[in-house]
Amino acid sequence: MAGIGAVLVLAVLVATVSGHSDTTSVHLTKDNFQTELDGNNYFVMFYAPWCDYCKKLAPTWATLAEVRNGAPDGLVSIGRVDCTTDGDLCTQHDVTGYPMLKLFRKGSASGVKYRGRRDLAEFNAFLDEQLAGGGSAEVDETEREQDADGIPTPPTPATPLTELTEDTFAKHVSAGKHFVKFYAPWCGHCTKLAPTWEELARSLEHERDIRVSKIDCTQYRPICTDFEVKGYPTLLWIEDGKKIEKYTGPRTHADLKQYVAKMAGGLQQQQQEGEGAAPDSAKPAGATLEGGADRDDNRSVVVQLTDSDFAGTIAHGVTVVKFYAPWCGHCMRLAPTWEQLAEKVAGRGDVTVAKVDCTVDTNKELCGEQEVNGYPTVFLYRDGEKVTEYYGHRSLDDLHAFVMQHVDGAAAGHDEL
């Protein structure tokens, strides 16, 4: 009986969120949205009742709302917006797919998009990290005290790890290759990473063209906002002042150093010490890269788009496009899966799998217009309109399921965003 009860509870939770009668999260509309946000921090789910992913998320969202909305600290409220009844509100907040989750700070008119896993533990970790500074003074001071004990003594000027400021940041990263840690002193994950980041800087101090640095986002928030830092620590690879890629891998010294070697096309010190050059997958133009000389694109099922044929190609049916750079490590890892995806849907006339090289001069304006902020970026278009960005796992099964969901949704007549 207990098992049946659990199933019934789950069914009720799914039905209530889908049917607009959820009583745990706050139902937000155009009439009360800004008023509610003026009164508290808000974590909001923008959804559509027919969306399968929304239905799957419903019980977790209801549980989160039950815990957070009744919490004594009142740090954050959990809300929801039905985009089928408040479409203008969803358009105003750039909702391009369902569900979209955004955190709004008290009084703010814009939110921070949540990009992590959709489970209770990750939601709570995200909220605690983002809103730690908004808790009680007693809790905040305790956190700062603990972090202060864990952070190494501030480095002397001779350290290869550069502490950047508002006055030095732009000039420092304007030329060359940079691996930058954006952090907050109160952040526990930042504290744990601190000694490893120092070690990484020291191990690379003899690399002439690579610099490891850090910047405190609690002191220099405008810079962190410009680089779209939405959580701490954020590790960005920057070349000649431009954000190239966000690092999302393991944070051990070996993994971080391997990533630097890959992005830089090998390390001079490794070659001098006899470790050998970086593998082919880490080399810059001229090696075996996606779209490089070693690839026979005549055999590729993926459609290579340029600025001149982009609009025409996406004008009809569903088109999923990967925006990439040939030197990008994550792009290289995705390349064979992208080919498999194209082969898997090759027999369908209603879906196209394509790619755009954003390093080609004639494509740079196109990538800017499409709001490509990192590589690879995957957008799905329907009949010439951008529908959504893909944030899921990059396995063949996950990508195929994502594409077919939108193909089948179009066939069923859903008016998806």
UniProtKB/TrEMBL annotation:
Keyword Signal: yes
SUPFAM superfamilies in the record: Thioredoxin-like
Domain of life per record: Eukaryota
Record-level Gene Ontology MF annotations: protein disulfide isomerase activity
Family annotation (Pfam families): Thioredoxin (PF00085)
Biased composition annotated in UniProt, kind: Acidic residues: 138-148
Segments of skewed composition (Low complexity): 268-278
Keywords, sorted A to Z: Signal
Gene3D superfamilies reported for this sequence: Glutaredoxin
Family: Belongs to the protein disulfide isomerase family.
Protein name: Thioredoxin domain-containing protein
